[in-house]
Amino acid sequence: QVQLVESGGGLAQPGGSLRLSCAASGSIFSIDPMGWYRQAPGKRLELVARIASGGSTDYGSSAKGRFTVSRDNAKNTMYLQMNSLKTDDTAVYYCHAVIATTPTGDLAEYWGQGTQVTVTS
Description:
Elements: E1 3-7, E2 10-12, E3 18-25, E4 30-39, E5 46-51, E6 57-59, E7 67-72, E8 77-82, E9 91-100, E10 108-111, E11 115-119
């Protein structure tokens, strides 16, 4: 069974940094794309950043210029380097991946359990 596990969340000050990780495990043929989403209290889920297996990236408007997404395909792991954090970045951050478990199987979406990021002075 495919599983996504996030780590690295926690407490940070405005202007500080955090680095999130998402590790995928299980029977995996490919992961494309892989991304970070977040949900703040009372708000809808929004894209933070996503990355394809070849390294191309897309960022949500709130993350552009401050966050950097990367991945290590050999480890099936994705990272989110979060710099210049703001209080508005406070949210639960979720890892998402589109995964094929066989070369010819249908693609399926998977979500991690989420990791809390809290930015406060």
